[in-house]
Automatic annotation (TrEMBL):
Organism taxonomic ancestry: Bacteria, Pseudomonadati, Verrucomicrobiota, Verrucomicrobiia, Verrucomicrobiales
Keywords assigned: Hydrolase, Signal
Entry annotated with the keyword Metal-binding: no
Organism in which the protein naturally occurs: Roseibacillus ishigakijimensis
Keyword S-adenosyl-L-methionine: no
Record field: compositional bias (Pro residues): 242-255
TM regions (residue ranges): none
Name recorded for this polypeptide: N-acetylmuramoyl-L-alanine amidase
Length: 255
């Protein structure tokens, strides 16, 4: 009887194990730092469509000036806020627009993430102006950053629109996938925009022109409207998921 008893117990154990595995549902990546890494939470899904809320983050602010142009003396924080206000005015016709800052004040990156993550069914646009860190540089042109799969289509539309405005744009080389705090951590699709290089004297003069910033804002507003209407349609194949943990306060600046 002992062999039969052993076989019966083994069969029961196998059934229990199979039932346990089946009840776990879809697999997810290993957790990192206590964060659940299910596919949806990581943004590995198609891009947003039909959204009615746009969160605008004007980069830097307060004691954090961001880049400063040696050519015009203008600060990134001021240009970003001005462009954000122009963009808000354009988008407010069709969307609920939430500004993370509307004055010259500093907001910690993780606080920006927390504020953006409070809204469901929204997208986040973080507006910046770039710099190589030295004056007179030759690097120029807009750059659009994304990380999440569901942000790729929106980022592609924005970059394509900016290339039609910016005379220095070189194809779609400015569309970049990078794990930054504001492209990776929020719970909503998010894109970080660098409108131009303040370290480039020619581009700095362009960015100092209010009518030029108006054109930049108009281009972004059109891209957002098209994304809301069509989703990812016509933006090409979505990129593959990249399993990496969220950025942390201890990560290097900009990550």
């Amino acid at each position: 009887m002992k062999p039969f008893l052993f076989a019966a117990l083994s069969l029961i154990a196998c059934c229990l194990l199979l039932n346990s595995c089946a009840s776990r549902g879809p697999s997810s990546a290993p957790s990192a730092a206590g964060v659940s890494l299910t596919r949806d939470e990581w943004g590995h899904r198609e891009g947003p469509r039909g959204f009615r809320t746009v969160i605008i983050d004007a980069g830097h602010g307060g004691h954090d000036s961001g880049a400063v142009s040696r050519t015009t003396g203008q600060k990134e924080k001021d240009l970003a806020l001005d462009t954000a206000q122009r963009l808000k005015k354009k988008l407010s016709r069709d969307f609920e627009v939430i500004m993370l800052r509307e004055s010259d004040r500093f907001i910690d990156l993780d606080e920006r993430v927390r504020l953006a993550s409070q809204r469901d069914g929204a997208i986040l646009l973080s507006l910046h102006y770039n710099s190589t860190g030295s004056g007179g540089g030759s690097t120029r042109g807009p750059e659009t950053y994304y990380w999440r799969v569901d942000s790729h289509g929106l980022a592609s539309r924005i970059q394509e629109g900016l290339e039609a405005v910016v005379p220095s744009a070189q194809g779609n080389a400015g569309l970049k996938r990078r794990r930054l705090r504001l492209t990776r951590n929020p719970d909503v699709p998010c894109v970080l925009l660098e409108f131009g290089y303040l370290s480039n004297s020619t581009e700095a003069r362009l960015c100092a022109n209010p009518s030029y910033r108006e054109r930049l804002a108009d281009s972004v507003a059109r891209a957002v409207s098209v994304q809301a209407r069509l989703g990812d349609q016509g933006t090409g194949a979505r990129p593959q998921p990249l399993w990496q943990p969220p950025s942390r306060p201890t990560d290097p600046p900009g990550s």
